[in-house]
Amino acid sequence: MPLKLSLKPHEKFVVNGAVMINGDRKAEVVIQNKASILREKDILQPADASTPLRRVYFPIQMMYLESASGGENLDTYYDTFAERMADFMGAISNPDVMAACVAISRDVLGGQYYRALMTCRRLFEYEQERLNYVPDGVPAHA
């Protein structure tokens, strides 16, 4: 089944590792075969992998993009993912988030990198809430 992308003017996207930019007008692109595609909003730059969960997301993203070009660095990215996911899972206790982490790991092992990325993205808000959490009675600036 083809994938139809509706692109905003000047929106960037990646197809099999090639960065592309839409022109001056809204456009639609139809992808007829399997390809690794990420929209600009889903691409995480290395410098932005600054939280525990984003450090999990980044190697999944790299595995997804790498898988389209032969995957010679997949093992390296997988090792980084596994280490960072283990660290993240060791720091959480929420059963729903733990289940999502298991699903992400299962998808990565099965080569379903895009699905793993989207599940990981859904946890960004949870992580941000935890990072901003200040217990009652503790000054926010402490």
What would you note in describing this structure?
This protein is of the alpha+beta class. The protein has 2 domains: 3-40; 44-132, no CATH class. Helices cover 47% and strands 15% of the residues. It contains 5 helices and 5 strands. The protein has helices at 52-67, 74-90, 95-109, 113-122, 124-132, and strands at 3-7, 12-15, 18-21, 27-31, 37-39. A 3-stranded antiparallel beta sheet has the order 3-2-5, with no helix packed on it. It has a two-stranded antiparallel sheet with strand order 1-4. Strand 2 (12-15) and strand 3 (18-21) form a beta hairpin. Helix 1 (52-67) runs antiparallel to helix 2 (74-90), helix 1 packs antiparallel against helix 4 (113-122) and helix 3 runs antiparallel to helix 4 (113-122). The longest helix has 17 residues, at 74-90. The protein is globular. It starts with a strand and ends in a 10-residue tail after the last helix. The model has no long low-confidence stretch (mean pLDDT 90).
Helical stretch count?
5
| Shape label | globular
Question: Radius of gyration over alpha carbons?
Answer: 17 Å
Total domain count: 2
Q: How much strand?
A: 5-15%
Strand order of the largest sheet: 3-2-5
The secondary-structure element order is EEEEEHHHHH
Share of helix among residues?
40-55%
